[in-house]
Amino acid sequence: MRPGPLRERGVEWVEDWRVFDLPMRTRFRGITRRRGMLLRGPAGWAEWSPFEEYDPAEAAQWWRACVETATLGHPVSVRGEVPVNVTIPAEDPGSAHARVLASECRTAKVKVAEKGQAAGEDVARVEAVRDALGGNGKLRVDANGGWSVGQALAMIKDLRAFDLEYVEQPCATVEELAALRRELARRGWDVPLAADESIRRSGDPERVVAMGAADVAVIKLQPLGGARACLELVERLGLPVVISSALESSVGLDAGVRLAAALPELDQACGLNTAALLTRDVVEKPLVAEGGVITVREVTPDLDLLDPVAAEVEQWWLDRLEQVLAVTR
């Protein structure tokens, strides 16, 4: 793909680009396909894949991350492999159990609070995952802000029997998280809370710490503007950190793995094993866990694996980028 259309829009560093459209094995985060752009700059390939409902201002953070990776490259690694969790969609208990066993991961993150599903379905799924992990595996759940404080308390009452490592973003707002965390302490329930959306979408991630709203920070590279911005934020927050994916292709995941590999300390498994949720990828050897870890390695897209997309789809991404560039100039 010639760089012309992007250079015409002022992206002078781009050497090549592609639009990708990857089917998923199961519905996840309400979508069945993952789409975005791959761009090559002087430091290599990078991914820009903000979710399609995000407005230009929010997508601009993802663009900053892409520009950084393509022009400056990755931060220096201090470890050669990164422990990761298996991510369990809001699926039936049998499928969840099988997915954990197939992954060989010793940590699992289970999606809960899916719209249209009952609380009992969440409990059954978590129970199946605990059974697959055994007593020594670590189990975390992610509600994506889907519960009120009252609903979170009711669900945690049932789920805490499965020895949760933490509950990720149980409620939507920082205020709710803080209130929930206080109530958990009052009841003597030792269930840590992790903040995800309250960090990457709030516009003020440090409020999470200021309000005592979380025990763990979930950090995602693209939404937070790149690896260097993430490393600075981690230092300011002072919380234990889990680096997680934004459901990228292996090119985007590579940037997340490199960020995790650059952290001075990494005590918990990261949520970077999501290439397993795609039916195909942009590389011949997808960046997936082996034995519960992802090894730091070079990841370059195989352009022959990228099916041509319709001209109108390419144009949609070019138009979207033009809108983002307008708010970043």
Note the run of SSEs as H and E.
Answer: HEEEHEEHEHEHEHEHHEHEHEH
Q: Could you report the average pLDDT, rounded to the nearest whole number?
A: 96
User: How many extended strands?
Assistant: 12
Straight-line distance between termini: 25 Å
Beta fraction? 15-25%
Overall helicity:
25-40%
Strands of the biggest beta sheet: in what spatial order? 5-6-7-8-9-10-11
Gyration radius, rounded = 19 Å
Helix- and strand-based class?
Answer: alpha/beta
- The low-pLDDT segments are none
Please state the overall shape, judged from the principal axes of the Cα atoms: globular
DSSP summary: helix tally: 11
Major sheet attributes: 7 strands, parallel
Question: Could you describe the 3D structure shown?
Answer:
By secondary structure, the chain is an alpha/beta fold. It is built from 11 helices and 12 strands. It has helices spanning about 5, 55-70, 95-105, 120-135, 150-160, 175-185, 195-200, 205-210, 225-235, 250-260, 310-329, and strands at about 15-30, 30-40, 45-50, 80-85, 85-90, 105-110, 140, 165-170, 195, 215-220, 240-245, 295. Strands 5-6-7-8-9-10-11 form a 7-stranded parallel beta sheet. Strands 1-2-3 form a 3-stranded antiparallel beta sheet, sandwiched between helices. Helix 5 links the parallel strand 7 (about 140) and strand 8. The mean pLDDT is about 95.
